[in-house]
Amino acid sequence: MQKKLAVAILNWNGRNWLEKFLPDVVQFSQNADIFVIDNLSTDDSVEFLQKNFPTVNVIKNDKNYGFAGGYNEGLKAIPNEYYCLLNSDVEVTENWIEPALELLEKNPSISAVQPKILSYHNRSYFEFAGAAGGLIDNLGYPYCRGRIFDDLEEDKGQYNDETEIFWASGCCFFIRSKDFWEQNGFDARFFAHQEEIDLCWRLINSGKKIYYIGKSKVYHVGGGTLNKQSAQKTFLNIRNNLSMMLKNLPFPQLIWLIFFRLCLDGVAGIYFGLKHGFPHLWAVVRAHFGFYGQLPGTWKLRQKNQKNEFYQSKWLIFKHFLGGRQQVADDR
Fold first, then answer.
1. What pTM value is reported for the model?
2. I want to staple 131 with a disulfide (CB 3.0 to 4.6 A). Which of 62, 144, 202, 297 is the partner?
3. Could you tell me the strand order of the sheet in which 134-136 lies?
């Protein structure tokens, strides 16, 4: 009998993650159908699942579509009313589903809900990918309650709330399947990184809300596919962020902001090159040319309506690196 919620885990050569974390997903997700969407793994992930987890449904993609395209392809075969998109390197906890599902059930205007995301390795601190809910500043830089750029806060209960946010982390979030498909899912051109922010931005522009709920808690390892020092991650983040802004920004702010960001990216490229080496500098250059190459297609995907007040903070990059702001609650 089909349940309202489907927990969907995208997998690519992640047999070790599945072995480590899937047992808890099965144990603490009794009220959900569980699916693993396999992106044509070359390890023994599928065989391992079929042998050891007979109650878990396996969907086999015909190639590696990346994170964005992989979910788009796999979710086509999942008919449930709600999806929970869950990374394979996430440890779930008891009662992690119910608070999020209850919030969606009681408020039809909410499209997506993110739980509290803590670090698996440093369990009293928030995790980089999502923390206590995603926000964005007026220059299009994403940040989180509990994380500004690379600075992470300790969890002291300061975000044990239920509140509206700007974006929910692709590491773990719940979404109405109807709303996901009304937006045509993720932008598959992104491949990976910031596709969830783009999706949430499109949902907000269409009049929907994104929420965070602190009653639900998970622990994320992070860097399971691309670690923070990966030049490819630098490339994807910068290219996708520029494309996301072009798609979703209100037109009066679009031209000056894109130009300003291109200039700031040049400065960032020099910084990355000095700190991490030439591949990161080159990744910024590649990201810009990747953005230019996608520009005609991105322009066609612009929505008819964009909200003027899309941001929650102004000039965050300058406040952080020049003014020392390290927490969302810090108004310096």
1. 0.94
2. 144
3. 134-136, 142-144, 147-148, 151-152
